[in-house]
Predict the structure.
Amino acid sequence: MTSTETHVSGDPPGHVHTDACDHDDESNDHDHGHHHHSAVGGKLAYGPLILVLPLIVTIAIRGRLGLLDNTDLRLWSTLFVSVSIQALPFLVLGVTISGLIAAFVSPDLVQRIVPKKPVFAVPAAGVAGLALPGCECGSVPIAGRLVDSGTPPAAALTFLLAAPAINPVVLVSTAVAFPTEGRLVIARFLASFIAAIAVGTWWARRNDHSLLKRGMHDHDHGTNRWQTFLDAASRDLVHAGGYLVLGAMAAATLQLVVPRSVLDVVADNELLSILMFAFLAVLLSICSEADAFVAAGLPQFSLTSRLVFLVVGPVIDLKLIAMHAGVFGKKFAMIFAPVTLTVAVISAVLVGQVLL
Amino acid sequence: MNRLGRAVVIVCLGMITARLLFTGGYGWFVQQRMQIPLILAAIVLLIIGGIEALQATREEQSNPDSMSRHAGPAVGWMLMLPIFVLVSVAPTALGAAAAQRVEAFTPPDTTERFEPIDSSAGIPEMRLSEFIDRAHWDEQKSLKGTPIRLEGLVVNDDDITDGFKLTRFMVSCCAADGIPIQVALRGIDATYADDTWVVVDVEWIEPEVPYFEADGPRVVEAQTISLTTVDSGIPNDPYESPYDD
């Protein structure tokens, strides 16, 4: 296990990474394509469309068949608005904290704290996830900044996976959603933590940083810190909030479209329901601060299969794949996504077997 | 999305949240205990959005080019959708349409001892969940011969010719996790439209075979003594919570 380098590819950062570094853009969201028609950013702008189009088509076809009458539309609206409103306070809390971190916790400080050797840095980064609340959309740009500031990438990636899954806001919302299932909160914490450490260790051993395309960007730490806070919080809010609304649409549609009987058949088969929940977690792309409420609404499924949903969702889903590709490069995302998904499912099933 | 667009979205979110809080309409979508978190969220949104809007306007006046600055992804505009839906479709609380999609709640076996029912101050009001809980599991059969006042909405059912299923939803967090709680009311001649809110005085009909020994669905039935429709329509707190006790 060797120590890692700050600059991950042999090329001078300024030369290769021009399209990934948006001069004024701290959060590095994947939407750069609108400004710089870069190879990565341009394609990723279609990310939301991939998620929305099937929904629109489904609704359109249902309308043709006469299935979507006024009642269905109203019920869909109730479900959609409910999920959105329920998640809003958690989202606002998350972006407030992420804004404060952006303003008051400098990468230098983090770098001083994080050990240089991955064998120490990976678990340390996992624990750090506990202290830095925010939803997954917020942790992607933070992880990017950590890599920029010289944190071993394995540690940054461990943080990326741990923070959205085990932070206090998410654990509290899980406890609120499952008030009678305290074990589920512990199981979620353990399974997510183990998955994050496992992926981080895998990355440290692999040590192939040519995969990690990482642009350097300067942030304006010279300006007013409250201004930095305001900008980061607002940016995270519209970014994470936009994806949250997509998730709420998908969840409401799924509740109406999927026949109850299919869910009941799946619910009777443990293996099928575990696979289905892993699949749903990736497709629905629900914010980690809200996913427990969705899982609580599907009581016909076993706790273990719902634990899979809670462990997979925060570490890998459609919107995260898009963000990973935007921040760390497409090649990276193509390898990182399947590994993370597999590790998360295995970790959740194992912990579920022991604890639930 | 530029900076002004971002500010507009945040202010709109804050305003719609404040509106739901003032009208009490939030209770149709989330549990009552979300009130304080929602108030805090609305305040933060209005402050951040307000400052952003002021700064963005000032920035535009001093430097018109600054508006093209990238301040957030286009997906941020999606936040306008719930606001648009609230204003245009005007969704209501869960009702008959939702009740027909999800299997009704069956109270889990409880070892809890039920308090005696106090009828000294007139007919006591009871939540639907407590009514079916007592119907199933009260060994003292406290409901027997005791008139009880219930409130809920009408869900018509083809199997019930002289009544309907009085329904409320048990919601643990938001309406998306709502599970219907139902009592089949008998002895009603008039017909009522689905989703009409009613207050009824009823008396439990003891089943010939205990619920847990019967095959098939275990519907709790009750004989209707009197019925009043609720003129004000859907209440602001239409849901029961699993942690009410």
Remarks:
- Residues 1-48, 215-221 of chain A have pLDDT under 50 and may be disordered.
- The CA atoms of residues 19 and 39 of chain A lie 8 Å apart.
- The two ends of chain A are 36 Å apart (CA to CA).
- Chain A has 17 helices and no strands.
